[in-house]
UniProtKB/TrEMBL annotation:
Pfam families: Vinculin. This is Alpha-catulin. Belongs to the vinculin/alpha-catenin family. InterPro entries: Alpha-catenin/vinculin-like_sf, Alpha_catenin, CTNNAL1, Vinculin/catenin. The gene is Ctnnal1. It comes from Eubucco bourcierii.
Amino acid sequence: MATSPCSSSGVSSSSSSGLGADAGLEIRTRSVEQTLVPLVSQITTLINHKDKPKRSDKTLQAIQRVGQAVNLAVGRFVTVGEAIANENHELKEEMSVACIEARRAGETIAKLTDVTSLDHPESDSHITIFTDKTGVVKAARLLLSSVTKVLVLADRIVIKQIITSRNKVLATMEQLEKVSSFQEFVQIFSQFGNEMVEFAHLTGDRQNDLKDEKKKARMAASRAVLEKCTMMLLTASKTCLRHPDCESARVNKDGVFHRMRLALEQVIEIVTDSRASGDSEMAPSSIYSGIKEFKNKVEGLRENLYFLSKENLSTMLEVILEHTEDFTDSAYTSHEHREHILELSKQAKMELEQLVSVWMQAQNQKTKDVMEDLEVAILKTCQCMNELKREVHGAATSLAADLLKYHTDHMVLKALKITGVEGNLEAVAEYTCKLSEQKEQLVEMCRLLRHVSGTEPLEITCIHAEDTFQVTGPQIISAAETLALHPSSKIAKENLEVFCEAWESQLSDMSLLLREINDVFEGRRGEKHVYLSLPRPGKHNANLKALKPVKLDTEEQAKIAKLGLELHLLTSDVDSETEKWEDQENEIVQHGQGMSSMAYSMYLFTRGEGLLKTTQDLFHQAEILATEGTKLASALHAFSHQVHDEDKPLLLVEAEKLISMCRQLQLTAKASVQGKSATFTKVDACILKTRNVMTLLCQLLPLCCRLLRKNKAGNGCLKPAPPWREDKIRTGTNAHAPERRAETFGIKSLENHVANMTFLESK
């Protein structure tokens, strides 16, 4: 396993402090970096003190305070480091050495800054910061180096936790792959789900902590694959168990397991900073990055005529023009775009020839006229490259926009579902060919978009999208073939639905990606787009006018991601419980489904997705959810009148709990706050209180369902008392609740999966 190097004693710091930079310790995470910032600041203050002939008592006291503060902070820090060392024996020796060095350096700094008791701090008999500045610099270097070592070693423990978690997931996956009975599958999948939730939390924290944006994007892509494949693994495995002799079902399942293993491996490569089999980290360079580098070199000729050769510049242009062949050779590039790209490629060669000619001339004679000619040649060359960049951008984005618009109806997927249920193998074969054609179009679109994405993280996102279409297409085909062979199989139908939803989800993600790429091209990246997308009741309008909607940035979304994931799992649980009710028109079910839909939209907000675009949208949604919960509590009270005495107290207690929680949520959502920090705290509180409400709802739904079933079994649980209230509100179609996207893929809670394992009898 490759880990952060910890052998060197140098760290980068402020050059003004006299602390030398050493690349031996590479800091890869923000948490390590941010921990060092205050320490570097204090030490820099000491090193950079002004050497005045006369020093006031105030100055001396300040110097001593800083020195003591550093020593005390290091002492506390080392105590924690030593505790970590005792718990992790494989790192104990390295950690102990680093802790000893840090403690020694802290004590040295404290002694050198102990100057207030001296009448003459410069006295030769007392070595202080004033008489031995070199000693202070050495102590500071040692302190920063040793503290960084401790932090990097502690970071290796986090990496070890992720690897251990991955190993558990892999081991359980192997068991899942070999099971032959539904009962065994249910038990093992429960364990697998818990392990995936743990892995999601650990890798989510790591992703948010990474400094390298490319690695962060790769981690996000791998985690997205794992999240979506978890549901695929469930339905594909169920289908295979239900139809053990079906070859297409086996191929479908094997594809999911293979993709999950690749994603798990990539996560480990990222956290350990290693690559299997010497693979290169990135795909070939894009046209955008090539043009950017080429222009930098060309413009660099203004400062230095000798820093590169003409052969290097020619080679760079050749590589760029080779990449443009991806556009000119593509069957999906319009004739107009193809002709313009070819013309600009030809012009770029001519401009470079002219530039090289003037450049060679300038190396021999730097006259004013020659230098002016060089400047003109540089400008014309860069202008030509800008036009080429604009042309390929237009070609890629116009193709993407057309394809995404054309495929929004999902006609091929719908046809596959219908013909599969009909058992029409011939029609399924016809539509699988059409899906393969669609896949090739979308894969080509992703390849061209990668060339114009503008940033490395977006390039990685394009590569991930291309892989998703490449893999998901054949998986849809195998799932459709399985359904066509077993048209009455409910689980085969469910499995096809899951893979089709993955395709639809990726198409939806492509629309967002296209918008980001256009934003980068037009220089809008980083702007906060504000959307007030939800309808507001009139009574709130006056208050809303005074509020400035806020959209959380990436870092804030990361902080609430874990809470959002828990909310997602709870909505899955609620959906599972409501599906068990025979009467889907039941008022309790209706309210429960509405609350689940609203909670789901709040979960999407934590991911920066969905219809809730601003914090004000979120707070408004929380208010509506709280109101819906209060209505559910009223329905529970009405239901309690039909329940005999022995069952009534428990139901009423739970209903009162729900009323109290909804009231707290409503108060939190309506509370007025100002400032970014206070707004984020309110967001966190709203999601936390929503989670509490949904947790209680998960307990209430099975309780009510049990009482209804008890009555049907003839136990006389319900009185033949008054009818249910007439003013039923169908919250599932509430205008204020964003329409929930068909079940997206997530790391489901295990109770939900187990509840769904009644397919032995039903499917």
